[in-house]
Design a protein that fits this description.
The complex is a heterodimer of chains A (about 120) and B (about 110).
Chain A (H helix, E strand, L loop, with lengths): L3 E2 L4 E5 L4 E3 L2 E2 L6 E7 L5 E7 L5 E3 L5 E5 L4 E6 L8 E8 L10 E2 L3 E6 L1
Parallel strand pairs in A: 2-12
Antiparallel strand pairs in A: 1-4, 3-9, 5-6, 5-10, 7-8, 8-9, 10-11, 10-12
Chain B lengths: L4 E3 L2 E4 L5 E6 L6 E7 L6 E7 L2 E4 L8 E4 L6 E5 L8 E8 L7 E2 L3 E5 L1
Classes of the chains: A mainly beta (about 120), B mainly beta (about 110).
């Protein structure tokens, strides 16, 4: 079965600093990969998705992620953090070996705090 | 346009009671999904509908959980004889078809006392 590992349940950065949130997946066959953001008491909002086109994916709010097959990684980055980026971020996969093409498998999430 | 709508936003009930959670997907989306998010965890898949039929209910934890989508639009997740361990946020998502990105509602926070 698919699994997703998000290293670091909590990441704290200063406003204006680089944001790096890590995600590794388990499949030997590249799946589709997603990053979602969840603000308090809200549902999940899609930030970006990788679907086997360009390996560097640009999303909303200045976020981007790079798919690296050799490292089975899909880390999320943003050059300069804003206070409004404080939220929980989830990496998710669908497809790949042992996975369906509709059932999202999520990591446990990374809580991002941004300090003034 | 309107997103995925879930009602109620919060539900508090006593152990042993029956609850229904409603999901109104984005108009025209044929695929509908339910996930459960426990505290400190990522969402976990419960069930997937394609149209009116449950194409995959492998994530339902036991037979106390049931979901329907009789007209291929609104879906209801039903939980019988609720237990304290059922307390979680129940998220609904929809997509135009099963291999398209899923759009999530704000969830129903269920608390079993």
């Amino acid at each position: 079965a698919q699994s997703v590992t998000q290293l670091g349940s909590h990441v704290s950065v200063s406003e204006g600093a680089l944001v790096l949130l890590r995600c590794n997946y388990s499949s030997s066959v590249p799946p589709y990969l997603f990053w979602y953001v969840q603000y308090p008491n809200q549902g999940l909002q899609l930030l970006l998705k990788y679907t086997s086109a360009a390996t560097l994916v640009k999303g909303i709010n200045g976020f981007e992620a790079e798919f690296k097959k050799s490292e089975t990684s899909f880390h999320l980055t943003k050059p300069s953090a804003h206070m409004s980026d404080a939220a929980e971020y989830f990496c998710a996969v669908v497809g790949g070996s042992g996975g369906s093409n509709y059932k999202l498998t999520f990591g446990k999430g990374t809580l991002l705090t941004v300090n003034p | 346009g309107a997103g995925v709508s879930q009602t109620p936003s919060n539900k508090v009930t006593e152990k042993g009671k029956y609850v229904e959670l409603r999901c109104d997907p984005i108009s025209g989306h044929t695929a509908l999904y339910w996930y459960r998010q426990s505290l400190g965890q990522g969402p976990e898949f419960l069930i997937y509908f394609q149209g009116t039929g449950a194409a995959d209910d492998s994530g339902l934890p036991n037979d106390r959980f049931f979901a329907v989508r009789p007209e291929g639009s609104v879906s209801t997740l039903k939980i019988q004889r609720t237990e304290r361990g059922d307390s979680a946020v129940y998220l609904c998502a929809s997509s135009p078809d099963r291999d398209q990105p899923q759009h999530f509602g704000d969830g129903t926070r269920l608390s079993i006392l």
